[in-house]
């Protein structure tokens, strides 16, 4: 599993209140929780987790304990989120085949849409780890299920441009809180977060973005906030960008040609992915209805039944 440390400080561009709310929301998720005693070994605690929930929260996870777990090549589970301030670690465990299929297949299709030259500008960073830091110390950390970013990672402060988070048995609230965290932690270097919310009868893909910074957003030092500036600041909060793509089936026996696909294609704006304007014939990445019909069929009929 690749690990990537960012030198970025804690984000401020979406506002400290938003940052606080997303971290608090993640730490307060109503999920199975295990407390780690001050003298307990987190590796033993995690290895003894038997529950089948997708997300498990561990409290009492000091930064020292988190660092030991994070840097271990034999760590169990995938990091969902960590807060040093709250001493909360949330891991994904177990990683089911359907969960892995959902994000990996979408990630693969996005890169398949790119020409050889464009693919030469992008790397797939998978479930790399990214960190929020303050004064050189880790304050929070998270991993996406899949992520894409520029090969020259210095161009985006070492953050990906696109992150994919999949949820089969996870709540939408957990994924939405994580989407907010990505934008805040990266200081908006992450441009698109795709949330895949799936169940046996529906697959929904939400595209989350923040609005571009307005040209007039710069405010002179010591100048009081105006209503205009406050409205501009509000536009920086992450939002779902409609339309939301969905694939529905009436029952487990519904054939794929009767699936109801709405709001296709899924569009990934070129500038958000590559951080430059397209040069014709370059253009946005479009994932069409045909792909999502086969994507859902494979998920429901082959992966889920195994």
Gross morphology: globular
What does the main sheet amount to? 8 strands, mixed
Rg over CA atoms, rounded to whole Å, is: 20 Å
Number of strands: 16
> Mean pLDDT, as a whole number?
85
Order of helices and strands: HEHEHEEHHEEEEEHEEHEEEEHEH
The N- and C-terminal alpha carbons lie at a distance of: 25 Å
Helix content: 25-40%
Low-confidence stretches: 1-20, 215-224, 227-234
- Strand percentage: 15-25%
Count of runs of 4 or more consecutive helical residues: 9
Outline the secondary-structure elements.
Elements: H1 16-27, E1 33-35, H2 42-47, E2 55-59, H3 63-71, E3 78-83, E4 88-92, H4 97-112, H5 116-119, E5 122-124, E6 129-134, E7 137-143, E8 146-150, E9 162-167, H6 172-185, E10 192-198, E11 202-209, H7 227-234, E12 239-240, E13 245-248, E14 260-262, E15 266-268, H8 270-274, E16 285-287, H9 289-303
Parallel strand pairs: 1-2, 9-10
Antiparallel strand pairs: 2-4, 3-4, 3-7, 5-8, 6-7, 8-9, 10-11, 11-12, 11-13, 13-14, 15-16
